[in-house]
Design goal:
mainly alpha; 2 domains; about 0% strand; flat
Length: about 375
């Protein structure tokens, strides 16, 4: 008797059990259509993610459109730094031209405008009157005022450079007790306003000294160059000391030692070796002192009576065109331009030394 396994009724009556191969075929046919399409897509069918990315791109464009002009400029500057550098350069140039050169241009326009027509000046002179540059010397001896300021500034610069060179050598190259406190004292004194010294100096310069009578006549320093050279030299001395101390301390010790081996003294080494090697620093200190003294008004106004024969400075001459009932603005402008010429020539001649002196020490070798 043959034992037969009864058919499996799980598939229903009349259904047969598929083989393995037929099962795979049925499974492939039973896969949903959208799964089949997704399997054929290169991105795996992530249509929703792709749409989400598109939405993000659209929101980024909207954010780009919502940016203000400054934000867009910053974004472009980050992408292109050269563009930002050019913009900064042009901005600095325009600022320099407006704040520095435009006042001189306006002085020139006022000087070329005839008297009594200055109120109608816009950007060009209201008329043309170059004779104002000649009238300056006819109304007042303006050349004497310029000469007085030049002499006072030159004398003050010489005094400052000599004393500051000695002090700078001591502070920069020597070691002695109290060096740091003395430097701090010089720094503190430089912060005092010039007006704080006026009362004692005015009393001193108006006091008669017997030893000065053969020189000044009345024995006082009032209406003499000394009344301006001494205080102005003291006021601008700290700046020169700090500049020269920095330069003198950078000179190698071997150069000074070689000079001293040859028989020179410390003072000789200072003037023969150190100062020539520190020419940019000396030129910077000298030019800055000269310009400051040349333009100084406070002590120059109070220590003289305003007359050119009594060493009144250039600012007294400019104010001399301002009378009780009349102000000659065109002559004041012309005299201001003439007064700037000596300083401009000095700066042009010494500009290379000034730049190298001001930038010395910026790079460490």
């Amino acid at each position: 008797m043959t034992n037969e396994t009864p058919p499996d009724d799980r598939h229903g009556a009349g259904e047969r059990t598929p083989s393995d191969g037929e099962t795979e075929t049925v499974d492939a046919d039973d896969v949903p259509a959208h799964w089949t399409r997704a399997r054929r897509m290169p991105d795996g069918g992530r249509t929703e993610d792709r749409g989400h990315d598109t939405l993000l791109g659209e929101s980024g464009d909207d954010a780009e459109l919502d940016r203000g002009p400054f934000e867009r400029w910053v974004a472009n500057a980050i992408k292109n730094p050269e563009r930002a550098y050019r913009a900064m350069f042009y901005t600095a140039t325009v600022f320099f031209l407006v704040t520095t050169l435009f006042p001189f241009y306006w002085l020139l326009m006022v000087a070329l405008t005839p008297e009594g027509q200055q109120q109608d000046i816009i950007l060009t002179p209201n008329g043309f009157n170059p004779s104002a540059f000649i009238e300056v010397f006819q109304v007042l001896p303006f050349h004497w005022y310029v000469f007085n300021s030049f002499v006072i500034a030159t004398a003050s610069t010489i005094v400052v450079l000599i004393i500051a060179s000695l002090a700078g050598y001591a502070f920069g190259r020597l070691e002695f007790p109290g060096k740091v406190p003395m430097m701090m004292l010089v720094l503190v004194i430089s912060f005092f306003p010039p007006a704080a010294f006026f009362i004692p100096l005015n009393d001193l310069f108006n006091t008669s000294f017997f030893a000065l009578e053969p020189i000044t006549g009345d024995g006082t320093l009032y209406n003499t160059p000394g009344a301006m050279v001494l205080p102005l030299s003291a006021i601008f001395m700290p700046l020169a000391i700090f500049i020269l101390t920095t330069f003198y301390s950078q000179i190698p010790e071997g150069l000074e030692d070689a000079a001293r081996v040859e028989g020179t003294t410390r003072l000789g080494a200072l003037f023969r070796v150190i100062i020539p090697l520190s020419a940019p620093g000396v030129a910077t200190a000298g030019v800055l002192t000269f310009i400051a003294v040349y333009n100084e008004f406070f002590f120059s106004f109070l220590m003289t009576d305003g007359q050119p024969e009594n060493w009144a400075p250039i600012l007294e001459g400019i104010l001399g065109y301002q009378g009780q009932y009349e102000v000659m603005y065109h002559l004041m402008a012309a005299s201001s331009i003439i007064g700037v010429i000596p300083v401009a020539i000095l700066v042009i001649v010494a500009q290379e030394k000034i730049v190298s002196g001001l930038t010395a020490g910026a790079l460490k070798e």
